[in-house]
Design brief:
Strand content: over 45%
Number of strands: 53
Largest sheet: 25 strands, mixed
Helix content: under 10%
Radius of gyration: 27 Å
């Protein structure tokens, strides 16, 4: 964005120092993440011992069955064990387990005013087996640690069988001062979900699922979480999705679909998060906050599965991380349509993916659309080595890095679609293209670039296939020659052939004024072609290895590299 560029030269030293600090912090985060990967058997912030999270590896010594029946319930034990005691007030059941046995608690039946609370100093399983349970005054299921030492919760396996529905109330009352109670399902310890049933959660007072440790989803359960008050899933450690189908709908202001104090790891399953709540003043933290589909304090990592996020709230984000993000597999789709939020001197912008640390793309598919601000932004560096990345901004830069941006492989499409200021790829450090296939579309606003670097740095074109609708930064180092044509037709199919491979690309309804191309050999370009076959990228905007017919050859001249604004 040029409106910020003119001020950068005034604070070059400050910016450089800030970039060094950000890079140093990012290296620590990534190195720490790598070290943690070894500890976690490659799970990248997932379980410290994957086998311990698999309920199939656990033998249970006894079963406690709680059957709710409207205004009363029954509790049975098999076998009877004096280590387990329980009390029952109507349909509010409290169990105290003081021994070392592995106990399975099976909950079934229906109660509109009931709950299940467990005090335990050992790991256990809670099985939902056709349960409908509402607690008007707090959590429906509340797993504490030993009563004598609050906050020391153990691992809880949550098995979903059949169809189950849980809900809390709009207000929580009667929570002991030494205990937490943060959601419809709450645990002081780890929560590991598995099974193949359906669990519907309605959160009206606090979050849907909350743990003061980590939360993991395994197996093939289906969870539908609707929250009008808190987060969808909140963990004081990490959240890992290894399997299952998750649908999360959050309408509360300032809240998130996933909120983790360390890492969010998506390695399997299908997760869909819809956010409609907006920014607001958070009295608990005494600051204005926006919403996000996924929020992590340390790392967001996607290695498999699917993650789909929509956020229509004011000041909302798709993915927000105070640390780094790594995309190495799976499929991510983020759509942010909310406007910016302003209250007095407080402003919160809506963005697709925003990270304080580095963002790395080395596999998988990432598709991002942001109506008003950056599609993808890093306050540090961005590297793309593999995979497919599409990012769109309706009113700003499509992809922006506060530091360097390096593209060595993969397929990249960056589209600044607004009529206002917007570069397609914008680095406030060096921007280097040495591999991959890049389709960059600048906005039509005067002086906006398809590929842009800060005036104190440089754009390097060293390799790869480049298709740019718009100029390149003035003063770029073009080790690999670039060629241009003064104009292009909108909403048309073009083809470019480089080193024997033909790509077809569809032009948008608006964008930069010039066509610039580059490849390992001088490209041949045709306009108005008909394309068939090939491998589609960017939801069909570009076809790789296709067959084209018809069209008119576009005359190309050596790019003179005089398009930059400064």
């Amino acid at each position: 964005m040029k409106k910020t560029k003119k001020s950068k030269a005034l604070g070059t030293g400050i910016l450089a120092a800030r970039e060094i600090l950000l890079l140093f912090a990012t290296v620590l985060l990534l190195c720490g993440g790598c070290e943690r990967d070894e500890i976690n058997n490659g799970s990248g912030g997932g379980n410290a011992d994957t086998t311990e999270d698999n309920i199939d590896n656990v033998t249970f010594d006894m079963v406690v069955t709680v059957t709710y029946n409207s205004t009363s319930c029954s509790v049975t034990m098999d076998p009877v064990n004096s280590e387990v005691e329980y009390s029952n007030s109507d349909c509010h059941v409290t169990v105290r387990h003081s021994g070392s046995s592995n106990v399975k608690y099976v909950l079934k039946g229906t109660a509109s005013d009931g709950s299940f609370k467990l005090y335990s100093n050992h790991k256990q399983a809670v099985v939902f087996d056709g349960l409908t349970l509402t607690n008007p005054n707090g959590a429906a299921v509340n797993v504490q640690g030993p009563e004598a030492t609050p906050g020391k919760g153990k691992r809880t396996y949550v098995v979903v069988n059949g169809t189950n529905t849980l809900s809390d109330g709009t207000t929580y009352s009667g929570t002991p001062s030494t205990e937490d109670e943060k959601g419809v399902i709450f645990s002081e310890g780890k929560l590991i979900f598995s099974g193949d049933g359906i669990l519907n959660i309605t959160a009206k007072g606090k979050s849907g699922i909350a743990s003061d440790d980590y939360v993991r989803f395994m197996g093939n359960p289906t969870l539908n979480i609707t929250s009008t008050a808190g987060h969808g899933v909140k963990a004081n450690d990490y959240i890992t999705v290894s399997g299952g189908t998750l649908g999360i709908d959050v309408s509360a202001n300032t809240k998130k679909g996933f909120s983790a104090s360390s890492t969010v790891l998506i390695e399997g399953g299908a997760t869909t998060i819809a956010i409609t709540g907006g920014a607001a003043y958070d009295s608990e933290d005494s600051e204005y906050k926006g919403t996000a589909g996924v929020k992590a304090d340390t790392l967001v990592k996607v290695t498999g599965g699917t993650l789909t996020i929509t956020n229509s709230g004011q000041g909302g984000k798709g993915i927000s991380c105070d640390g780094a993000a790594v995309f190495s597999g799976g499929s991510v789709k983020v759509t942010v349509t909310g406007s910016n939020y302003t209250s007095g001197n407080n402003s919160i912008t809506s963005k697709g993916i925003i990270c304080d640390g580095a963002i790395a793309f080395d596999g998988g598919t990432v598709w991002v659309s942001s109506a008003n601000n950056e599609g993808i932004e890093s306050k540090s560096v961005i590297t793309i080595s593999d995979g497919e990345v599409y990012c769109y901004s309706g009113n700003d830069d499509a992809m922006n890095a506060a530091g360097n941006m390096d593209i060595t492989g993969g397929f990249v499409c960056a589209h600044a679609g607004g009529s206002n200021e917007g570069d397609a790829l914008d680095a406030n450090g060096d921007l280097t293209l040495s591999g991959g296939v890049v389709y960059a579309i600048a906005s039509r606003a005067n002086q906006e670039m398809a590929l842009d670097a800060d005036e104190q740095h440089k754009l390097y074109v060293k390799g790869g296939v480049l298709i740019a609708l718009g100029n390149l930064e003035r003063g770029a180092s073009l080790t690999q020659s670039c060629y241009s044509h003064s104009s292009w037709s909108k909403n048309a199919w073009y083809s470019i052939t480089v080193d024997g491979i033909t790509y077809a690309f569809r032009t948008p309804s608006s964008g930069g004024n010039k066509l610039v191309v580059s490849g390992s050999t001088q490209p041949t370009v045709y306009s108005g072609v008909t394309a068939s076959g090939g491998t589609p990228h960017f939801e069909g905007m570009l076809l790789e290895g296709c067959t084209t017919t018809g069209g008119s050859q576009v005359s190309l001249t050596a790019y003179t590299n005089n398009g930059g604004w400064w």
